[in-house]
Amino acid sequence: MNQLITKSKPLLFLALGLSGIALSNPVFAQTCEKSPAVNLSAQAMQEVENNMVQMNWQVQVERSAAGKAMRDASNTLNEALATLKKNANVRNLRSNVETYPRYGKDQLVTGWVSTGSLSFEMPLAALEKNSDLALPENVALTNIQYFTSPDVLEKTRAVLIQQAIREFRSKASEVAKGFGQAGYSLGDVNINDQSGGGPRPVFATRAYAAEAPMAKMNVPVAGGTNQVIVSVNGQVCLKP
């Protein structure tokens, strides 16, 4: 998430990691030992629209024989998959079928339950345009989540990094001026970013499967926003 890139001056060491960017210069660190040093921080923030949606669907059947249960669940799941594969907006389509026994009194097997699940992602704009995905009526929507696409997050971070750096440099200049110093040089500087995390869940329940054929209903659309924050923290060495 934090694969950030920034330009560096000669002698600067650039380290990319999961926690952000770290710039360190031993020459500057030595300079700070002989001159006043000030720790500063700056931050840039922006709300971005969630433009993607992830949905999980499920079909569940119970039969007296394991093979029959698996076959019926698989047939329904394959019908749903065939429909979704025709939709050019569907991405990362995944499916799975599991079969397990149903136990009754004295731990005797009374039947077999087969659960077919599928999940996929699609642009929120495509869902808003047509929220009826035309899936089989016994396929139930069990979970829906909204999130910001990686490309939008990266573009937003790139802009915020520059904003935070400008704010940090402005603060450094003001501090140097306030202390009557000629200027400043950089010590250790860290650049970190964070966003609102993964997909934002709207609901997650299997009760709807028994109450209504969710596949025949319009999927709820409520994307919301994601907050992206970039912070710059570091040390500046005041020049006399």
UniProtKB/TrEMBL annotation:
Q: Which residues form a coiled coil?
A: none
Respond yes or no to whether keyword Ribosomal protein is given for this record.
Answer: no
Superkingdom of source: Bacteria
Signal peptide range in chain numbering: 1-29
Q: Does the entry feature the keyword Membrane, yes or no?
A: no
What Pfam family is a match, any one? SIMPL
Write the record's keywords in alphabetical order, separated by commas.
Answer: Signal
- Please give the name of this protein: DUF541 domain-containing protein
